[in-house]
Amino acid sequence: MIALSQGRTKELLAIHGWSGVLLGLLLYAVILTGVIAVFAHEIGEWSAPLPYAEHELPQQGLDAAMRARASEVDPAYVDDISFFSDTAGRIRTFFHTHGTKPGESTPTDRGVEFDLDPRTLAVLDRREGWADELHEQNLPAALADFFVELHVSLHLPNPWGLLVTGILGLAMMVASVTGFLVHRHLIRELFTLRKKKDPLLVKRDAHVIAGTWNLPFAFVLAFTGSYFSFAGAFSIPAVAMVAFGGDQEKLIETVVGVSVPENKTPAPFANLDAMLADAKARTGAVAGFVSISHYGRADAVVSLSMMPLEGELASDNLIYNGATGAFVQQKPFLGQTPSLGNDLFLLMTPLHFGHFAGIWSKAVWFALGFAGAYVTLTGMLLWTTRRQHQPGWAKLARAAHWMGYGLPLALAAVSLARFAAPLLDVDVRAAQYATFIGAALLATAIALKVRDLDALRRVLLAGTGIALLLAAPLRYLSGGPGWITAFDAGLATVIALDVALLLAGALCIAAARRAKPVTLPMNERLPEEASAA
Amino acid sequence: MSLTATAVTLSLISSLVPLLMLARRDPKRLRSSAVATLKPHSAASRQMLTVAALLPGATLMGLGYWPAFLIWLGGLTVAGWALVQLLAARRAQRQR
Predict the structure, then answer these.
(1) What Å distances lie between residue A180 and A60, A295, B79, CA to CA?
(2) Could you tell me if A522 and A386 are in contact, meaning their C-beta atoms sit under 8 angstroms apart?
(3) Of the partner residues B71, B85, B88, the one whose CB lies closest to the CB of residue A360
(4) Other beta carbons less than 10 A from residue A434's beta carbon
(5) Which of its termini does chain B have fewer beta carbons within 10 Å around, N or C?
(6) pLDDT (tens digit, 9 = 90+) per residue, A217-236?
(7) Which residues pair with A110 in a beta bridge?
(8) Any CB–CB contact under 8 A between A214 and chain B?
(9) Which positions in chain A touch B2 (Cβ < 8 Å)?
(10) CA A158 from centroid of its chain's CA atoms
(11) Number of CB atoms found within 10 A of residue A441's CB
(12) Which of A194, A357, A371 is facing B32, going by the closest CB pair?
């Protein structure tokens, strides 16, 4: 127990509640989409499966595939080449150069992107243009991208979206710390959840218990999320401004790149497959990301980011001379020599994304994120519904219900749009956006029409349940594999996600059938409020 | 089953048993739900069970199995939350 004066407890409780209420609506959206984004690869595979399950970059045959594609594209685009296995299991290959889009100030990439079959390395799709245009044309990753971008930037333009999500991460940290401080009997009440007391205590216990158990990870996820948001929105441009005259490309090249004297002399490129084999022999791991700079020149550099080995959180980054194929060095991701900063940087990614040990870590991170969303929603509902009889608070209580139960409905509707769009011959990404906005407007109309908050909760939950139940059949009707085909092809993800969505839909319908009192007594105090009074 | 999966399974099971014992006879829980049939743990036995619940995590840390340690820690917090919910729901059902 942390001893605080009554005045300090009161202040912290006010900060905890107000930070949650003012930013909680958006914070809930970021956390909920983060929970979904944990399974971005699985969603990609589920929504656009290949005839087989492949999740790794092939270590043989890339050399021939790269040379074949390099001969087809504008020579300017072989300046930078990258390969990786994307969320939908395709090998995404990007031949590009750097430039500034007309009318914009931030540098970006322009080039040709190929989706390659991970087994045959045959071209499945070809896209050309600026990076953002390529992104819009990418159909297999459309559904996963929608959830990830909503989580990362709320679909707001750069850098505003990242700034907003960074601030929301800070708000989550504030709520975690103040919640920890105001809850006076954290350990003593770790197992206390009253179910048969008055509704206020039941709701308060549900919020506090979930918050207490989830506290360490809520802080970690908020901190790492803020770090990623602010790094992209603020830190990189600021450091570039101070130290590199605003040249962000130069900054990134200096911090994460390899220092090689420029030599534009044409030179044949060494065998990529041999470099991949050498990297595997040195580290025991397979490459997950391949980056080639200055292909076909004497100063060509190949950077191989290896997958983490079993039992490891971080991975290796190997550098090869592209012209000779010789191994150059094992380089830290940040800087040229090992450092504490590099080690901390490497920790950020697994701690935030939870993808360091396959389905095991993803399942746990999903549950932790779900607990975070539950704490945020129950906190907002507790704070606002208690005060709903005071002027202004009724609208906030309604808004909390609208966001809490309307957002899952809109997100579930997006997956329906993903499968309905090809059947209706409309653009998938545009259909996803339109459906999300349409479902949000529908939820708004329902929130304005249905006066009783519990009835509102039940209607929106029932809608979410129906949408979730429809997702799997619609996936099948739009040409996706059935369960027998998926089983034969080893596409366990397809079957698992179908079952999970059907179960989640059934649970939503069941929850919608249960009535709950939502008007909480005004004249009673929560234990924290009593100690602060 | 991979080394990480094996380590996580063993460590989580080893931690959940003392956690369940802690939760069942937690003094505050028994008091708030008016359970007279169970005797609360003494302070010494609570401390012993807490150490037993945390020991698998400390072992994973000591051995340097960081992925398994992180999954164990996350799994333990989620399982702890679920356990409290289950015990409360069971108690509420009995009181009906």
Answers:
(1) 52, 54, 20
(2) yes
(3) B71
(4) 15
(5) C
(6) 999 999 999 999 988 767 66
(7) A97, A130
(8) yes
(9) 310, 357-358
(10) 16
(11) 12
(12) A194
| Position A245 pLDDT exceeds 70 | no
Give the pLDDT confidence score for residue A108 in this predicted structure.
87
Q: Are A352 and A228 contacting, i.e. CB atoms less than 8 angstroms apart?
A: yes
Out of A55-64, A107-116, A275-284, A521-530, least confident range:
A521-530
**Identity at A82, one-letter amino acid code:** S
Q: Which of B71, B77, B84 sits opposite A191 (nearest CB)?
A: B84
Q: Hey, how many other C-beta atoms are within 10 angstroms of the C-beta on A279?
A: 26
Q: Positive or negative, the Cα torsion across A375, A376, A381, A387? A: positive
Q: Considering only alpha carbons, which residue of chain B is nearest residue A221?
A: B74
Least-confidence region, from A318-332, A381-395, A478-492, B51-65: A381-395
CB A168 within 8 A of CB A27: yes
Strand, coil or helix: what is A375? helix
Distance in angstroms (rounded) separating the CA atoms of residues B44 and A48: 56
- The pTM of this model reads 0.89
What pLDDT is attached to residue A390? 78
State the Cα–Cα distance between residues B70 and A362, nearest whole angstrom. 11
Helix (H, G, I), strand (E, B) or coil at A83: strand
Two tokens, residue A516 = 């709950």
Q: Which two tokens stand for residue A7?
A: 């005045």
Per residue, the 3-state secondary structure of A137-187, as one string, reads: HCCCCHHHHHHHHHHHHCCCCCCHHHHHHHHHHHHHHHHHHHHHHHCCCCC
Distance CA B94, CA B87 (A): 11
DSSP code for A260: -
Query: In this structure, what is the dihedral angle of CA atoms A165, A169, A172, A176, given to the nearest 10 degrees?
Result: 170
- Do A297 and A319 form a contact (C-beta atoms < 8 A)? no
Distance CA A419, CA A433 (A): 13
Which position has the higher pLDDT, A253 or A312? Answer: A312
Which residue's structure tokens are 């590199």? A244
Half-sphere exposure of A130 (CA within 13 A, CB side): 11
Query: What's the one-letter identity of residue B70?
Result: L
CA angle in degrees (0–180, nearest 5) for A236-A238-A242:
115
Q: Pull the structure tokens for residue A169.
A: 């991460």
Instruction: Supply A31's token pair.
Output: 């956390």
Amino acid at A84: F
d(CA A65, CA A121): 7
